[in-house]
Amino acid sequence: MKMITAIIKPFKLDDVREALSDLGVEGMTVVDVKGFGRQRGHTELYRGAEYQVDFIPKIKLEIATRSENVDRLIEVITSVGSTGKIGDGKIFVYDLEQIVRIRTGELDDEAI
Amino acid sequence: MENTVLELKFALDTFYFLVSGILVMWMAAGFAMLEAGLVRSKNTTEILTKNVALYAIACTMFLLVGYNIMYVDNAEGGFIPSLGALIGTQAEGADHSLESDFFFQVVFVATAMSIVSGAVAERMKLWSFLIFTVVLTGFIYPLEGYWTWGGGFLSELGFVDFAGSGIVHMAGAAAALAGVILLGARKGKYGKKGEIYPIPGSNLPLATLGTFILWMGWFGFNGGSQLLLSDMENASAIGKIMVNTNAAAGAGAIAALLVCKLQWGKADLTMVLNGALAGLVVITADPASPSPVLSLLLGALGGSLVVFSIVMLDKLKIDDPVGAISVHGVCGILGLLLVPISNADATIVKQLIGIACIFSFVFIASFVTWMIIKKTMGIRVGEEEELNGMDQHDCGVDAYPEFVSMRN
Question: How confident is the model at residue B407, as a pLDDT?
């Protein structure tokens, strides 16, 4: 089992969620996050003084999935979540040791 | 028949005073929303507490001693008013009821004090602020108010301040400036090398609502200051005052908008809000004399000046989170100096004397008062309280407690 963590542009969330649902993904966790990468921040203006905003709002998706599905999910997130401009985000994949469904106590593949 | 007409005039003028007073009272809500919007969310409950408490204290102090000091049994043309308590007795042949006059005057005191709370926001101790409120609204304001509106030496001199550009707005700003100088800037406002870090307000919708409420209340502030409504001359004057007040506010906002766009390429909302208020403060010195077109120009001058004044005070390390000193102080002075353009009774020298007397007295009296409070109980919150926000420390509750866990 793998845990996929994807950082994407906030306005891409609906498209990515729809595309993943079409693939049969049945659950995900979404968090509002802030951060920076190569895009860096931007400057804003308040009462005549400019200031640097270092952290830009992004969406973080977390999806637990069977190992064999990882490549397809990555492909969909990359193609749907891309704008071709800097700041499109990143995908991280981790090994997942155990999953437990709290209601029933089911484990691992059963609990995805 | 004639008696009935006189009684009707009395009733109408009293009614007009009361309604105008209610409009000015509503400006307390405007200041509260403007300030709540321009501070950070961690200081919101505290600034709102200050706003409601200062209004209450101002009304109480002015009832107990302030009105008496400002208006009752004073010498014509004097410097020192008589000390006394409560509001006196109804004069024979007055145009309106004594209570309606008190009610209209009392809400002006609260306005002057509201100006102070914004400038010292986010770092002034709650209880020290409230003690200063007692002194300003009970004694400092009534004394300088007597000089012009109570028949003191400035009114004899011929100083013109129709609705209080100087007596209310510049006076509030002078008290605020004294406080800010003794208090110092908010933590994080200036870097080690003196670089300026803006501290954006937490809720611009509230700041905008507050500005509109002030704009609305100002029709009572300026319109009511005509004092009488019940004949053609006064009624026409009030119509003109309303038009001029509105025109100056609009022109102030437009001017600030254009200056920001030209200067930085952006429409800086909080500057536009200050621009509208600056136009209002400028026209307050004499909304009855200029033509509507001249009012537009006067308001635009205020709206332009306020933008540069805010940037300049920032550079001088006078940290004023809401721009109160620029809006009410700098533009109050501008308004008073512009009066002679349209009012033949005023001269620039007399206006300057009035400005100097009111400003220096209120500034020095406030400075001494703040200093005594600073030496005894302190005026600034501790570093940790400032970092964590004053809501937790002084009030015990956050204004926006989104992450409080819910129990069934």
Answer: 62
> pLDDT (tens digit, 9 = 90+) per residue, B336-354?
999 999 999 999 999 999 9
Give the closest-approach CA distance of B131 to chain A in angstroms. Answer: 31
Beta strand A2-8 with A29-35 is unpaired
Question: Alpha-carbon distance B136 to B132, whole Å?
Answer: 6
Q: Which domain holds residue A41?
A: 2-111
- Of B360, B372, B407, whose CA–CA distance to B147 is shortest? B360
The CATH number for A23's domain is 3.30.70.120
Q: Report d(CA B83, CA B50) in Å as an integer.
A: 28
Number of domains making up chain A: 1
- Domain ranges, residue B133: 10-221+235-395
- Which residues in chain A have their CB less than 8 angstroms from residue B307's CB? 48
CATH of the domain at B111: 1.10.3430.10
Q: Which residues of B17-41 are buried (b: 16+ CB within 10 A; e: fewer)?
A: bbebbebbbebbbbbbbbbbbbbbb
pTM for the full predicted model: 0.90
Looking at CA atoms only, how far is residue A51 from chain B in angstroms?
A: 7
- Would B403 be classed as within a structural domain? no
C-alpha–C-alpha distance, residues A111 and A72, integer Å: 20
Q: What ipTM does this complex have?
A: 0.75
Asked if the C-beta of B79 comes within 8 angstroms of chain A's C-beta atoms, the answer is: no
Chain A residues lying within 8 Å of B327, measured CB to CB: none
**pLDDT digit string (tens) for B154-206?**
999 999 999 999 999 999 999 999 999 999 999 999 998 888 999 999 999 99
Give CA separation, B126 vs B29, B43, B51, B378, in Å: 19, 11, 10, 11
Partner-chain contact B323 A49, CB within 8 Å = no
For residue B199, being part of any structural domain is answered with: yes
The one-letter code for the residue type at B249 is A
B314: contact with A, CB 8 A cutoff: yes
In a domain, B228, yes or no: no
> What confidence tens digit (pLDDT) does each residue in B222-243 have?
999 999 999 999 999 999 999 9
Q: Are A47 and B197 within 8 A, CB to CB?
A: no
Whether residue A49 and residue B197 make contact (CB cut-off 8 A), yes or no, is yes
Is B78 domain-assigned? yes
Residue B224 confidence (pLDDT)? 97
Q: Number of structural domains, chain B?
A: 1
Interface residue of B34, B202, B268, B316 to substitute, partner A, most A CBs within 10 Å = B268
Contacts of B323 in chain A (CB under 8 A): 47
Contacts of A51 in chain B (CB under 8 A): 197-198
Note whether B311 contacts A45, CB cutoff 8 Å.
no
| pLDDT tens, residue by residue, A86-108 | 899 999 999 999 999 999 999 98
